[in-house]
Amino acid sequence: MELLNKEAMREWVRSAARQLDHDTVFSRADVEGEILPNFCEGRTIFSVAIVAQMLAILITLVTRRISLNLFHDLLLISLFVQWIGLASAGVLCVSRKYLNRLNNLRAFGMAYLLLLCVTWLVSESAVWLLFGFGKINTPRPEWYNYFHVQNICMSAIINALVLRYFFAKHELRVRTLSAERTKARAMLSRIRPQFVFSSMNIIASLTRSDPAKAEAAIEDMADLFRMMLSQDETLVPVKNEIEVAQKYLAIEGLRLDNRLRVDWDIGKFPRKAVMPVLTLQPLLENAIRHGIEPMTAGGVVIVRLWEHEDKIYIRIINPIPRTRAKRVEESHSMSLEDIRLRFQSHYGDTAKLEFGRQDEQYIVNVVLPTRKEPT
Q1: Residue 128 scores a pLDDT above 80
Q2: Contacts (Cβ under 8 Å, ≥6 apart) of 106
Q3: Whole-prediction pTM value?
Q4: 235-375 adopts what CATH topology?
């Protein structure tokens, strides 16, 4: 029995060491992301067209008149600016996957040069079109140099501002994801030392009185920490979260003995259904810590999970002691606010977490999308 205990603990330590080595590489790849947005998407192209039109209106108002008709000038400038804007979006769409492989400075420089080249090519093409339709007598009119210099200078300023915006947004996303990763790692360590030490003491006491139960407890604890440490993804299948929660409750049940009883009701979930890693375990820990532990007789934690219309619904109900109901409710709220922030970082306003006291019970309701939509 002692040999089994040592082997299980060694396996746990080896698993933790492997995960710590892996986290350095994974976190860096996950945080860096892509610098430039996807210019192949219709939404991005529409945004480019809107910005180009606003720029065309501004140019029409501040530059010298081309003809006596203001709307005629706006039409010509709009066509020209839209041509440059859409051509630039097309070039960035094609070159995006190559630019995103470069470091920030090189990607900025290459994208900047590409956009300036697009401006020059569109300007030159516009001159030749005017010559081809007989609007000018020569492809090198007297305003040829001024036309190119003006367009290149305006393009240099505008593209520098736009690219700087993209890189500033990328840096903000990197910082946000880094903070999110830090919070996720903090959640991975939410298993309280009290839980670990108490569980290990109980296991030690069971090694003589009930070796089979002690061996099962060691295996459950090793499996729990292995599953928690091996979660490389931010979003995991629902069944993985349920397995982690069940392992956790099995160990807590050993620690609290017959004071903890769990009523599970799990519906069917599609394979695409995912949720943030360590969603259920903190919710259940919160219910046990503030609901079951303070009560001498313990109680029942009710867990309900179901899927409806591409939404994941979670409901956790636990009893609260009568004498300290208000204090327990405040402690519940403080712990659940951290979980709410995690959901908002993943899903924004599409995720909901509601909680509150009802009679002598504390009810937590969570609504999550079945899968995270691409941003």
Answers
A1: yes
A2: none
A3: 0.51
A4: Heat Shock Protein 90 (3.30.565)
